[in-house]
Amino acid sequence: MNALLICSGGFDSVTLAYRLAAENALGALLTFDYGQRHKKEIDAARQCAEQLQVPLLVMDISHIGAQLSGSALTDDIDVPHGHYSEENMKLTVVPNRNAIMLTIAFGVAASRGLDAVALAVHGGDHFIYPDCRPDFIRLFAQMQAQALDGVAEVTLFAPYVNADKTEIARDAARFNVPIGDTWSCYEGGELHCGRCGTCVERIEAMTLADIIDPTPYQDTQYWKAAISKVKAKVNS
Hints:
It is built from eight helices and five strands; from the N terminus they run βαβαβααβαβααα. With 236 residues, the protein is α/β, with parallel strands linked by helices. Strand 2, helix 2 and strand 3 form a beta-alpha-beta unit.
């Protein structure tokens, strides 16, 4: 496999980049400027590409992102705090984001002679992101096989789609990922906030995997309350 990895610069996609590089299966990274509220993830993706010595393609689709309104990731809306399973996390949905990015990625991969598109979606995304779920991944791969029929053979590699983020954390340790160089936080402040959905999930995953998290957070304790709240709802 010689894969084009969609890399946001976050913990999940950078871990998959290091996994693919260790398996000599990483051809290039593709990151998107879709008008998100900060560019720290793009900077982290660039650093990942430099560390792994692979090309980085930066695709500016901000004019498209500007039409995908109503999300806390692209509009002037407060980023919700809590666990991903909370109802308020739907404010972080950018409609069809993965579908749009994957469509572009398959075209780029085919044009560059790469035989796979890799994506680090995982089970924790299933709560609120429909274009991260197993059925979407399966059907999208089938659609692209038809779209590129007779042109190129490009597969879709999403190894974590049925796994939780703890497995990604274990891979981060296994493949010596420089976790502190990744950026996940939706807020985009000086430090990871420790309160948004992706921060909460990131801290929880590394705690469950029993690995050291070198990331400095503004709030190091909030995640515990967020997890307790979810557990209380389940048990009520």
